[in-house]
Amino acid sequence: MTDPDEEGSPTPDTRHPTPDTRHPPVNTEHRTLNTGYSLLRVWYLAARPKTLWAAVAPVMIGTAMAYGDGGFHALAAVAALLGALLIQIGTNFCNDYADFKKGADTEARIGPMRVTQAGLVTPEAMLRATVLVFALATCIGIYLVVRGGWPMFWIAVLSVVAGVAYTAGPYALAYLGLGEVFVLIFFGPVAVGGTYYVQTGQWPWYVTVAGIAPGLLSCAILAVNNLRDVEQDLVANKRTLAVRFGKRFARAEYLACVLGAVPLIPLILWQGFCKSPFLLLSILCLAAGLQPIRTVWERVEGAALNPVLGQTARLLLLYALLFTVGWIAGTL
Hints:
This protein has helices at residues 28-33, 39-47, 53-68, 74-101, 123-148, 150-165, 179-186, 189-200, 205-228, 230-235, 241-245, 247-260, 264-270, 281-284, 290-297, 306-329. It has a single domain (28-329), classed as Farnesyl Diphosphate Synthase, CATH 1.10.600. Helix 8 runs antiparallel to helix 9 (205-228). It is built from 16 helices and no strands. It is 64% helix and 0% strand. The protein is globular, with a radius of gyration of 20 Å.
């Protein structure tokens, strides 16, 4: 996923876009602006820390549900969280590398800074970092597989493969317009259900239902990102849904993703899987999505959409927090 909210990071000068995106030059202005960055700061930016809530949120929800059902396992929960974070960081690194190599990240970029395009990290160093982070995720995955068996093996393998295939390779998911499918599945039911399963050894259907909401909210982040970048993606032949179907579709997609999370909580309560009325707070927090929805439908475009990305990411975190509190409150 892309970085939802780094308003403090400098963005490239868009007054002189490169005329040939097949061989994008290094953004020398970024190099000048950021020569004072420490090595730690550079890799911190490369990890895109504000995107990591998309990895944390479903693990929080899955762990809360496992706790409420009497199956909480602390070590497995921590391992699931670390594994999710490492896969997210690895995906971000791979995205930084692949989008630069494919010409999607150029001087004309209007989103938050990408360290490879900015000349702060060489493509070779970013590729090595990508391999290292995914290797660490694999090490964490070994414990999860030992505990959870073959289901966790396939979840781990497919998560890593999807993280690489998101922007790398000749059939990259994001370039084919399949980014939302990846995000919905792996940041939704798979992350929530896998977290629950590795702790309890079970995967009931209501856990899958609960996982749809964080997946949809993560898709909303991606929809705004793609809406913002539609012109640049079109030049780079990155056929996102916004490029394929237009800006109006991307705005409708954002609305559907935010509002689509609303009926899931009543369904879970109606079926009696949670007795806590506090779970309804998760729905009320979605009211915080009204302002970004309004901004998106006011036809705001370009860099002006960056704050909406941050607002949507915070909405996802708030939803996960309130769901966690509400579910656990039902067990007290």
